[in-house]
Design a protein that fits this description.
With about 475 residues, the protein is α/β, with parallel strands linked by helices. It has 15 helices and 26 strands. The strands form six sheets. The chain has a nine-stranded mixed beta sheet with strand order 2-1-10-9-11-12-13-14-15. The longest helix has 17 residues. It binds adenosine monophosphate. The site of adenosine monophosphate has 19 residues, from strand 13, strand 20 and strand 21.
Length: about 475
C-alpha cells in the first residue's frame, strides 16, 4: 500500500471512530477531571478544533498541549489526530522554562493550557514544519543539554494502531489503565489502543495514584488492561489488594520502557494467576513499541535470567551489529529529530536494499529466535521508566554560574537498574540551591537526589575523572 492510501485509510478510520462511534453511549475516557462517552467525545473533538481554528495558526505549525491526565488532554490529542494537526504533548511535571524551550525549539505559536482550556500565545512567530503529515513530536532528554524532538509520521502511528489491535491480546472492548504522562510515549499504548478498539481509557493523575483508594477507582471502572513500566507495577505490589480477587476484570498486563525481570512476573502470576503478561520493547524514535511477547510459564521457567522482548512488528526488522547494537529498520522509524541534522546523520540510516529508514537504538542485544535487550552502549539511563541523558543533567549543572565542574552518576542497584542519581559539583553553592536551579529547567525525576560538593574532582592515573571512586563515595553517604 502506498503512503497516500495508508494516510487515507487512517483518516477514514479516525472519522468513523470519532465522528460516528459504534457505541455512542459507552464511556470513552475517564480523566482526572471528567468522564465522557464516545458520543460526548465526538462533540468535544469537533468543538476543540473550532476553538483551535480561531487562533489562526500558520498552516502546518505544531500545537503544544500542556496538562496532566485530564480527559480534555485526550480530547485535544484525538482532535489533533483527526484534523491532521501535529501536536507536542508536554506534561505539567515539566517546569515552565522547559515548556518555553520546547515551544521555541518547535516554533510553536501557541500552547493549549488544558486546565484552563485556553490557547496561550508563546511569542514565537510560528511556521509550518518541514515534515508533512506528522502525527506528533515527542520531546525526550537530549545529550547536548536540550530536549530533542522525535518526529513521528501519521503512517507510523497508523501502522502501530493496527498492530496493537491485532497482536496485544486485548479484550474486545478493553478498559485501559494509563499512568504515564502524555509526554512519555508509553501513554500512547492505552490511548491509541482505546481509539483502535472503541474501548475506555482511565487516566490517572499523580494525586489519584497517591490516594489510598486508587485501586477502587480501577475496580469501579472495571479496568481490564494494565499498561505501565515494570517499576510502576512493582510499587503497586506493596498494596495487598493488588490482586485478581479485588480486580477481577484485570487480565492483561503490558510492560514496556525498561527491563522486565522474572521476579516481578512471578509475583504477578501469584496475584493474577489467569492474566496474560506481555513484554514489549521499543524506543520513542520507532513509534512507541517495536516488539512484543507474552511471557508464558515456559519462558518464565527457562534457564535464561533475561526475559525476551519478543518478535518484531510487521514491516520492521532488527539488525544486530557485530558490537551487538540493535538497529531497527521499518515503517515505524521516525522521520528524524526536529532541526538536528547532526543527530539525524548519526542515528538514522538509509540503505538502498531497505524499504524503510533504520534507527541505531544504542541498545545492546542478541537474538536466538526471540530478541533480547541487554543494556546500553551510551550514557542514556532509565529511572522508574523515565528516559534520561546523563549528559543533559551535567550540561544543565555546568550552565549554572558558579559551578565550575560537574559529574553526574547513576548509582546502580545490585540486581541491575538505576537506584538514584548522584551529582558531584565543584562550587561554592549549597546543594539545595543547586536543586532549586535545576528544578526550573528539568523535570523532578531528572534532578539528582544527591548533590555532593567537592573542592576538586579526583582523577585516575590516566588523568580522567575517577568515576569509580566517586561512585563508591556516593554510596557511603
Ligand atoms: P523510551 O524512548 O523512553 O521509550 O525508551 C526507550 C528505551 O527504553 C529503549 O531504547 C531501551 O533502552 C529501554 N526499553 C524499552 N522497553 C524495554 C524492554 N522491554 N526491555 C528492556 N529495555 C527496554
Amino acid at each position: 500500500m502506498n503512503l497516500h492510501s495508508e494516510l487515507q485509510e487512517l483518516q477514514d478510520f479516525l472519522r468513523a471512530a470519532l465522528l460516528d462511534p459504534a457505541n455512542p453511549d459507552q464511556l470513552a475516557i475517564t480523566g482526572s477531571d471528567d468522564a465522557m462517552t464516545w458520543q460526548q467525545l465526538s462533540v468535544a473533538v469537533t468543538d476543540w478544533s473550532h476553538r483551535y481554528q480561531q487562533c489562526r495558526q500558520p498552516a502546518g505549525a505544531p500545537v503544544v498541549l500542556y496538562g496532566h491526565q485530564q480527559a480534555e488532554f485526550a480530547v485535544a490529542i484525538y482532535s489533533c489526530l483527526l484534523h491532521n494537526i501535529p501536536y507536542i504533548p508536554v506534561d505539567c511535571i515539566y517546569p515552565q522554562e522547559r515548556l518555553n524551550e520546547i515551544c521555541h525549539l518547535a516554533s510553536a505559536p501557541y500552547y493549549y493550557d488544558v486546565a484552563t482550556r485556553q490557547f496561550i500565545a508563546t511569542g514565537e512567530e510560528g511556521q509550518g514544519l518541514v515534515e508533512q503529515d506528522l502525527a506528533y513530536i515527542m520531546f525526550t532528554s537530549g545529550s547536548t543539554g536540550k530536549p530533542k524532538g522525535v518526529q513521528i509520521g501519521r503512517e507510523s502511528l497508523w501502522h502501530f494502531m493496527k498492530w496493537v489491535r491485532q497482536d496485544f491480546s486485548l479484550p474486545d472492548v478493553p478498559v485501559l489503565m494509563n499512568h504515564a504522562v502524555f509526554s512519555f510515549d508509553l501513554s500512547l499504548i492505552p490511548l491509541l489502543a482505546n481509539l483502535a478498539t472503541g474501548g475506555h481509557i482511565v487516566l490517572n493523575a499523580k494525586e489519584d495514584i497517591a490516594a489510598e483508594n486508587w485501586l477502587d477507582r480501577l475496580k469501579d471502572n472495571g479496568v481490564s488492561v494494565w499498561v505501565s513500566t515494570p517499576s510502576f507495577a512493582y510499587q503497586r505490589l506493596l498494596s495487598p489488594q493488588f490482586n485478581s480477587e479485588y480486580l477481577p476484570e484485570l487480565n492483561v498486563f503490558v510492560f514496556i520502557g525498561e527491563v522486565l525481570n522474572k521476579a516481578l512476573v512471578k509475583q504477578l502470576r501469584r496475584r493474577f494467576p489467569h492474566a496474560k503478561i506481555l513484554n514489549s520493547y521499543g524506543p520513542t524514535e520507532a513509534t512507541i513499541a517495536t516488539t512484543v511477547i507474552e511471557i508464558t510459564d515456559e519462558i518464565l521457567h527457562s534457564e535464561n535470567d533475561l526475559l525476551p522482548v519478543g518478535a518484531m512488528m510487521p514491516d520492521s526488522r532488527m539488525e544486530i551489529t557485530s558490537e551487538g547494537e540493535l538497529i531497527i529498520w521499518g515503517k515505524n522509524v521516525m522521520r528524524g529529530y526536529l532541526g538536528l541534522a547532526k543527530e539525524n546523520a548519526e542515528k538514522l540510516l538509509h540503505r538502498e536494499s531497505e524499504a524503510f529508514r533504520g534507527y541505531r537504538t544504542g541498545d545492546l542485544g542478541y537474538e536466538d529466535g526471540l530478541l533480547y535487550c541487554q543494556g546500553r552502549n551510551d550514557s542514556q539511563i532509565k529511572l522508574n521508566g523515565y528516559r534520561i541523558e546523563i549528559n543533559e543533567i551535567e550540561n544543565r549543572l555546568l550552565a549554572i554560574s558558579d559551578i565550575s565542574e560537574a559529574v553526574v552518576l547513576p548509582l546502580m542497584k545490585s540486581g541491575g537498574g538505576v537506584l538514584r542519581i548522584a551529582a558531584f559539583c565543584v562550587t561554592n553553592l549549597a546543594p539545595e540551591a543547586i536543586k532549586t536551579s535545576l528544578s526550573k529547567v528539568i523535570p523532578p525525576y531528572m534532578v539528582p537526589s544527591q548533590i555532593i560538593i567537592k573542592d576538586a574532582l579526583p582523577l585516575n592515573p590516566n588523568g580522567k575523572i575517577d568515576r569509580k571512586l566517586l561512585d563508591s563515595h556516593a554510596r557511603t553517604i
